[in-house]
Amino acid sequence: MLTAERMSMWRGRYQMKADGRPVAVWDPSWWRTGGDFEVDGRRFSVRANGWGTKYRMLDESGEEVARVERAGRKHWTVVAEGRTYEFRRGSIWGKQQDLVAGGLKVGSLRRTGAWSGDVEADLPGMSLPVQICVVGVQIAVWQSQQTAAAAG
Predict the structure, then answer these.
(1) What domains, with CATH codes, occur in the chain?
(2) SS3 of 151, please?
(3) What is the pTM of this model?
């Protein structure tokens, strides 16, 4: 189980914990949608395209590790580690995203607090860096949706 706990209301940084053990800090980008993190001494960057629907996770050498497509949509995918992971929004309110395989729910990520923005994820089969990428992208999508709703 991976959890993301907001560290401050002002900055948007999240402490990532795997089974209760701190493993990384998701540090959102100031200028572009996405963020950066480090796991076991390896640095990763996650950046969105101009519309915020596609994200790429790159390692420190600039190699693509994962790609998220159709982020924020009802159905979206993550391509990483030679596999394609499929997600679907669990409800119309968008507080939960389900990881599906063969039409069956096999995992999920969900917002655990409406005000805190904390997230809990059960994403079996994914490496820890890819799990952090998926949670970070979902945090960015939710924040973007909140900003748009507040402006509208």
Answers:
(1) 2-151 (3.20.90.10)
(2) helix
(3) 0.91
